[in-house]
Automatic annotation (TrEMBL):
Residues 35-145 form the Glycosyl hydrolases family 2 sugar binding domain. Residues 258-533 form the Glycoside hydrolase family 2 catalytic domain. This is Beta-galactosidase. Transmembrane segments: none annotated. SUPFAM superfamilies: (Trans)glycosidases, beta-Galactosidase/glucuronidase domain, Galactose-binding domain-like. GO terms for biological process: carbohydrate metabolic process. InterPro entries: Beta-gal/glucu_dom_sf, Galactose-bd-like_sf, GH, GH2_Domain-Containing, Glyco_hydro_2, Glyco_hydro_2_cat, Glyco_hydro_2_CS, Glyco_hydro_2_N. Keywords: Glycosidase, Hydrolase.
Length: 737
């Protein structure tokens, strides 16, 4: 499914939510049921629905395939009323040949019967799970028109032979899966990389078979790294008698990766992992968000949370998301679908192996992926199952290490990396358990903490300031501790974004408030701990963890204030009083945060009495003795404006495209008013619409929503009109192409 001979067929699908209902036109990615923000019954999307499409198939002798990149959870495909097959697994692609079902030079009818129930024969189901899986055709669909012989997949194996300063000499040995239905045998494969072309004759057998090409040495290759994610376009052609029969382009990055019991080394440099877990869900539409929104999540993790690794908890995620991780240098731990439960059902266990294979075959060439998670998240030991998943992963991928996330101690280590969810830190003195304690092994093994915090300290964006601070500090403490101790490869916090969940988890409203950002990707204080670890030359950060008010904290205290910053010093001005500059002296840093690269600077001044005069404040960040960033707080904040930020103002009007809008009610100096409960109404003009409700109340002074294009491009401009209960209205122009 890598051929360039493909067409995106996301438009003009018909959908109905029951056999009796009428079809209506929809675009893919599609959710079978839009859900409310919270307090909904998750059963409302667990049903069988129908997707239909008329597809003109040209007159040719091509083989015809469809690729469904993500359909939750299983489906039957009918072409011209004939059953092609049944496909299981909502997180891996299904590449299906329909050649013999099609009629040429005619419209053909595709019909999918999509089963979005939590079926016991398909992971992650069988018992309870702490996330929702939603339903529908929620990732792209492609039509492939291919020659009788084509390249179905390529695994770009390579070795970095030597390197210096991110320049390397590499040996590439592509493994090519050729699917041949023709009687022709003598094909030529032409491989182009970095403006060099290599040719090789291959005797292709009938059927589907892997071929290892001759190794190719390349010099002076820019290695892929976190701060310089160099990618190369690999172009491969399948040629018969000078006629190109198939061709594809895959971007590949080359890196020297070593993982041992002392840590992870990327291109010779030790990288301590600072990561967050990501669920791929969004308000209202669940999983069904298009390319731009997937890309944005990766950017948020890299730019706004400054992490160096994301774990795709608990399933393979969008190809667009992973591609973006490659482009921006964000490491990935990708894992198979599942949650705690292991089923005895035969079909279920077969599906686990299908998921391992589907995940690795799809994502093999992503340089960002550093390890495969081949164990059901937090399941008990099952040596039979996990020996099989590890074996399969190692057969396909001889280079990447495997891991498997558990929470139990003394678990049988069948993988290369012992990955563990360690929720021990509850605000007290213990931050993480030791490697030896958890693994039960005397010999050191590669050891990575894959979750912490989460349900131990659920925190809402609109919780009391002190809770938000403690939430931030807990993330800081664990990251700090992992950094200070060599036995940890690093730590991955639970989690990046709040997410919808089942009634038996979360706060009862179908949300787990475990994110360092909310479901709209709006930061809580904990996000500032992460962001402030950024290189100040890339972006100086100053985020004092306070709403700056006299009586929000218990007993009316205001200090200490932790200032999350990557600056050297913070100058504090209260009213007309310049209090002075604070640097990271021993008394200004919490002992338990000192392992961080930029521990928050703790400013502990005398707390004025309840009833003492209140004033404005300013916190100024200094880098190399120069003021470079500042944050002001008002003495008497009042509603002043609606701050509206769009991720993008240019959208693709011919497809389903979407972008996020964040609205904040702000005071005189632009700070969010965190307890504001106003509401907004959103109207649109032109070929766009709002995803979810149009009448939205602010949550903790801010809210996000997404607008989408309708694929019915007529006019270049569209408008978003926001009216608010504050009497402040905004109009924003969007351009469409
Ligand atoms: C873990 C689990 C996650 C999430 C988290 C909440 O046990 O792996 O999926 O439920 O708890 O803290």
């Amino acid at each position: 499914m890598i051929s360039n001979n493909k067409t995106l067929i996301n438009k003009n699908w018909l959908f109905k939510d029951s056999e009796q209902a009428e079809f209506k036109r929809v675009m893919i990615p599609h959710t079978n049921k839009e859900v409310p923000y919270n307090y909904f019954d998750e059963k409302i999307y667990q049903f069988t629905s129908y997707y239909k499409k008329e597809l003109f198939i040209n007159d040719s002798d091509k083989r015809i395939f469809l690729n469904f990149e993500g359909v939750m959870t299983a489906f039957k495909l009918f072409v011209n009323d004939k059953l092609v097959g049944e496909y299981r697994g909502g997180y891996i692609p299904h590449f299906i040949e329909i050649t013999n079902f099609t009629i040429r030079n005619k419209k053909n009818t595709l019909l999918l019967e999509v089963d979005s129930r939590e079926r016991e024969d398909i992971p992650p189901f069988g018992y309870v799970i702490d996330y929702l899986t939603f339903g529908g055709i929620y990732r792209d669909v492609y039509l492939y028109e291919l020659d009788q012989c084509f390249i179905e997949n390529i695994l770009y194996d390579y070795e970095v032979l030597e390197f210096d300063n991110l320049k390397g000499k590499i040996k590439i040995t592509p493994r090519v899966l050729i699917n041949n239905n023709s009687d022709e045998k003598r094909y030529c494969i032409e491989f182009c990389i970095n403006e060099r072309t290599f040719k090789q004759e291959v005797d292709v057998l009938k059927g589907k078979k892997w071929y290892e090409l001759n190794p190719i040495n390349l010099e002076n290759i820019d290695l892929w790294d976190i701060n310089s994610p160099s990618l190369y376009n690999c172009n491969m052609k399948l040629i018969l008698n000078e006629d190109i029969r198939d061709c594809n382009n895959i971007t590949v990055g080359f890196r020297d990766l070593k993982i041992d019991d002392t840590g992870l080394y990327l291109n010779g440099r030790k990288v301590k992992i600072t990561g967050l877990n990501r669920h791929q869900s969004f308000p209202y539409v669940g999983y069904a968000m298009p390319k731009r929104v997937q890309i944005k999540d990766a950017d948020i993790l890299k730019d706004d949370l400054a992490v160096n690794l994301v774990r795709t908890s608990h399933y393979p995620q969008s190809p667009y998301f992973l591609q973006r991780c490659d482009e921006i240098g964000l490491l990935v731990l990708e894992e198979i679908p599942g949650w705690q439960n292991i089923s005895e059902d035969k079909q279920w266990r077969i599906q686990v192996l299908n998921d391992v294979e589907g995940m690795i075959m799809r994502d093999y060439n992503h340089p960002s992926i550093v390890t495969w998670g081949v164990r059901i998240n937090e399941s008990m030991d099952d040596d039979e199952l996990y020996s099989a998943t590890n074996k399969l992963a190692r057969i396909i991928d001889k280079n990447r290490k495997t891991c498997g996330v558990r929470y139990i101690e003394n678990s049988n280590l069948l993988e290369d990396i012992y990955t563990v969810n360690d929720f021990i830190h509850d605000g007290g003195d213990i931050i993480l358990r030791t490697r030896e304690e958890v693994t039960g092994l005397e010999k050191p093994v590669p050891y990575l903490v894959t979750e912490f915090c989460g349900h131990i300290f659920p925190t809402k964006k609109f919780d009391q300031e002190e809770r938000l601070i403690e939430h931030a500090l807990r993330h800081g403490r664990v990251q700090s501790y992992a950094k200070e101790h060599d036995e940890y490869m690093g730590a991955i916090g639970w989690c990046a974004f709040d997410y919808n969940t089942h009634y038996d988890f979360g706060s009862g409203d179908r949300i787990c408030y475990h994110g360092v950002m909310d479901m709209f990707r709006i930061p809580k204080y904990a996000a500032h701990i992460y962001k402030s670890q950024k290189d100040p030359k890339v972006e100086p950060v100053i985020e004092p963890l306070t709403w700056w008010s006299r009586g929000e904290r218990d007993k009316g205290i205001v200090f200490p204030i932790y200032v999350c910053t990557n600056c050297d010093e913070v100058e504090v001005i209260l009213g007309d009083n310049n209090i002075g500059r604070f640097s990271r002296t021993e008394e200004n840093i919490d002992e338990k945060l000192k392992g961080l690269k930029y521990p928050p600077i703790k400013i502990d001044l005398l707390n004025g009495d309840w009833g003492s005069k209140w004033s404005e404040a300013e916190f100024i960040g200094y880098l190399d003795e120069k003021p470079i960033v500042s944050k002001k707080f008002c003495e008497n904040p009042i509603v002043c404006d609606l701050d509206v930020q769009l991720d993008d103002r240019k959208l693709n009007g011919t497809e389903f495209d979407a972008t996020r809008v964040v609205v904040k009610v702000v005071d005189q100096v632009g700070n969010v008013l965190p307890f504001s409960t106003g509401c907004i109404n959103v109207e649109t003009e032109g070929d766009i619409d709002v995803i979810g409700p149009k009448c939205i109340s602010l949550i903790g002074g801010s809210i996000g929503f997404w607008i989408k294009t309708l694929g019915t491009f007529k006019d270049n401009t569209a408008k978003i009109k926001i009216t608010s209960s504050f009497g402040i209205n905004k109009e924003i122009k969007i351009s469409l192409k």
